[in-house]
Amino acid sequence: MMNAISLALTNPMLSGGGAGDSDRYMFFATRNRMPSGTIVTAASGTNYVCSKIVVNTPQYKTRTFRFHLSGFASTEGGNAPQETVVTGTIGAPGNSVVADAMFIRAAGIFYQCTFAGLNTVTVADQTNGAWTDELTIPDVDPESEIEIWLFYHTAVGDKIWPVYRFQKHRGERVWGAGDLATLLAFKDTPLADSTAALDTNYATQTQPQYYGPDFMVAKGDWDGRPVALAVVDSLGEARQQFSAAADARGNLGWFRRWLDKDGGIGRIPHLMIGMPGNGSVRELTGTGSAIATRRWAILDEITAFNNNKKPFTVIANQMGQNDTAATYTVYFNTNYRSLVTRLRARYSGVKIVAFPPLGRTASTRTVTLTSVGTVVTATIASGINGLVTGQTVSISGATQTEYNGNVVITVTGPNSFTYNFAGSATTPATGTISANDLYLRAEYQSFSTNNTWPADGTDASGKWRLRNDILAKTNACCDESIDTYAAWVSGFRDGVWPGMLELPSTVVTVQSGTDGVATYTTIEVADASIFAPEQEINTYAGPDGIARLSTTLIASISGNTITISIPRATVLPVGSIVRPSVTPDGVHPYGAVIDRVANGIPQSEKLKFYP
């Protein structure tokens, strides 16, 4: 933990006596997020719900708190962040949600929150929602846990706005019942298992998201360190991590982990106001079915009860991934810079620090297939860069499905390889056919639209032109920039993801499977510490490690025992090599790359958050 002396020595803003304000509400909690995702429908017997989340506090004491409940949620995906996930239809509000009680629990003691002096509040659909009253409790020590218990209900069949996927390994729970009294009893058994009917699809994107407070602010011994309002998309608000992958402080994704890492000037308190799919051109604008301004109006409410002081000192802009357009002028000016213009107008004088987006590539190449007997000849016009004899390649898209599958290849030339199959009556194969190496090597990747490396002044290299303009602060698109490139890129090729061969790996120490029929759910490895739950892994035959045996997802880890999410039968001999997947789609990093980026950006860059 960084103490006041070391912080002052590191931070010139504090060495002159400190710049904090104990009477100013600031963002303080890890873990909190904006409502977004898929509506939850109340079922019979569980229409009364208690959601318990756990947040962690900053590196200074906190004591006075306010929490917010919203009456809407935002979309995710291509039209995010439209605030149109509602219980009714836009312009025609649906059912309300009754918050029956809300408590925070610190150091084992419950403290009840109130709403305008009452213990309950009704949150109406398509409204900004409600704030708790000011709650002052005994000082909460730095880097502590605070549990937030929300008891709420609707009628059976009514809808509830989605917010949190629960992180069970951190003590978070969701309980359901047909009445409030049954739920209140869980205060005596705070680690009782969640209600099975509500606790489904854990650690997946389809895990239900339950209602809870989104905006959270606190007063305390704020020491003047930066507090960030982070505008993010799916790269910042972790599309490939959901719940079980959270660290000890509840962080998912590289951006939260980097901000909350105890390095440089210390942990940076923050609130992320975006969600997966967020696009700059759609953020902080719109009305009706395109509205994306309610969250920002709630920020204004904080400023109003905060003596006209904002709950943050800097804006961290991680956007840009979803701003691509056919022409770079639209990409940079119409899309990316439009949000910057609105932010500067709304928060005049607040510093904007931008993070250039990561690149986007594909692990597939278009291939033509012909066959003679049981031998297929595959030809890739763009070259087979990186493919080697003995490697497994995934063939898909052939109309004649006998050509498709995971095949072991023999390289026959710079543009061709062969593999064996059962034979086909049709040659050449038809369809849109691709050959995929699953990001084993950087050399095989191809550039997606607008992502061609290097930036060359053309529209094709738009992503990297955006990076250059952010680093150069072109047209005041930011005040400072923190580059992500070196932490992300392959060590063997510019502009692409690291290949699996560049990431840490381990080996199987006890054979899994016996005959290819009997299934198993665990894999014993030499070092499971390099993995985390929700990480996809690939097992390759040793010692060369290029013939793929299995691909699966980690459900949990205990010591060096990996429990996988779906039973497998493929035999994994001792010495088989286990590698983490890189990305499912060339856009969103899996956990191994999330860690690579979070650990690769220097913590000293946090100094740029100061005015």
Would you give an account of this structure?
- With 611 residues, the protein is α+β, with helices and mostly antiparallel strands.
- Among the domains are: 236 residues, no CATH class; 74 residues, Elongation Factor Tu (Ef-tu), domain 3; 78 residues, Beta Barrel (Elongation Factor Tu (Ef-tu), domain 3).
- The chain contains eight helices and 34 strands.
- Strands 3, 5, 6, 7, 10 and 12 form a six-stranded antiparallel sheet that branches. The protein has a six-stranded antiparallel beta barrel with strand order 29-30-33-32-31-34. Strands 1, 4, 8, 9 and 13 form a five-stranded antiparallel sheet that branches.
- The chain starts with a helix and ends in an 11-residue tail after the last helix.
- The N terminus is likely disordered.
- InterPro entries: ATP_synth_asu-like_sf.
- It comes from Rhizobium anhuiense.
- This is SGNH/GDSL hydrolase family protein.
What's this model, at a glance?
The protein is α+β, with helices and mostly antiparallel strands and 611 residues long.
Task: Describe the SSE topology.
Blueprint: H1 4-10, E1 26-27, E2 40-41, E3 48-56, E4 62-71, E5 97-106, E6 109-112, E7 121-123, E8 127-131, E9 135-140, E10 145-153, E11 159-160, E12 173-177, H2 180-184, E13 216-220, E14 228-231, H3 253-260, E15 270-272, H4 294-305, E16 314-317, H5 328-346, E17 351-354, E18 361-362, E19 364-366, E20 368-372, E21 375-379, E22 392-398, E23 405-408, E24 410-413, E25 416-420, E26 431-436, E27 446-447, H6 462-472, E28 480-481, H7 485-488, E29 506-510, E30 520-525, E31 536-540, E32 548-558, E33 561-568, E34 577-580, H8 591-600
Parallel strand pairs: 14-15, 14-16, 16-17, 17-28
Antiparallel strand pairs: 1-13, 2-11, 3-10, 3-12, 4-8, 4-9, 4-13, 5-6, 5-7, 5-10, 18-27, 19-26, 20-21, 21-25, 22-23, 22-26, 24-25, 29-30, 29-34, 30-33, 31-32, 31-34, 32-33
Helix pairs in contact: 3-8
